[in-house]
Amino acid sequence: MAGWSKVKIIVHFSDSSDGKIGELRKLLNTPEWRIPGVHIDLDAITFQAALEKHRNVLRNKRAAKLLIIDQFGVDAVKDDVFKQLITFPRTDFIFFLSSSTLLRFHEHPAIKIKIDRPEDSYDVHRAAFGWFQKLTPPHAFLGRFSIKKGSNIYGLIFGSQHPLGAHKFLQVAWENDEIRGEANFDIDRENISPGDMMLPFEELRPKKIQAFESDLEAELRKGIMNSEAALIHFCIAAGMTCRHANPVLQKLKDEGVLRCDFRTPDVRRMRELRPISFFTQ
Length: 281
Prior knowledge:
Elements: E1 9-14, H1 18-28, E2 38-43, H2 47-53, H3 55-59, E3 65-70, H4 79-85, E4 91-98, H5 99-104, H6 124-133, E5 141-149, E6 152-160, H7 163-176, H8 207-221, H9 228-237, H10 246-254, E7 258-259, E8 277-278
Parallel strand pairs: 1-2, 3-4
Antiparallel strand pairs: 4-6, 5-6, 7-8
Helix pairs in contact: 8-10
């Protein structure tokens, strides 16, 4: 890609285990793992120590950063750590959360994420996501995805201060889950397959999509959401991609409720703020 030759790329790996870092060093020294233009840095330190060591880089407004954090449970990303991650400039992050561990030990003093125990174990990651969402400032975005492996459920939580970063995460999530965009299993137990969505039966449309379209239509009919940017924010906050707004926009255009110069909101044009205008009834 144009411009990459002028960018300094550094990949930092850290783990508290000397043995694991030693094994990783051997692997990365093999020919197939030597990537031209990419500098590798390895450190046998804890996550908290690594966070402190690289704090200046994380605070650098000119450097783009991606943090990938494996919690090995639910103890690494505590409230204070999350509040730092979500405010570091030009920083996207993704961390893994053992939803099964959180469900079994949610009342243990070591577990800092204090969620109400959901009736359905499938909803644990949603509850954990809600916990972090309360800690997220208005200008930042979160995304989630749940992974079921055997009897255990693991969750991914993605954070970004830019809507484009969040939207890219949601696009990947919806590519892996065409029904709800948030799990590799039937998280809502609706027993709907992607092929069923093509049938002309409203009851076969996923509840999440129906609820989103209903909420979006209600907001647009109020005449308050008057820009493409506001529409994009609404989509991302609901865990939907911009294309999910298409049916509602087309419906309201056909009814003469609103007018806009786009069919699908374009997250890459956020600065242009294309308007949405409303017709008086």
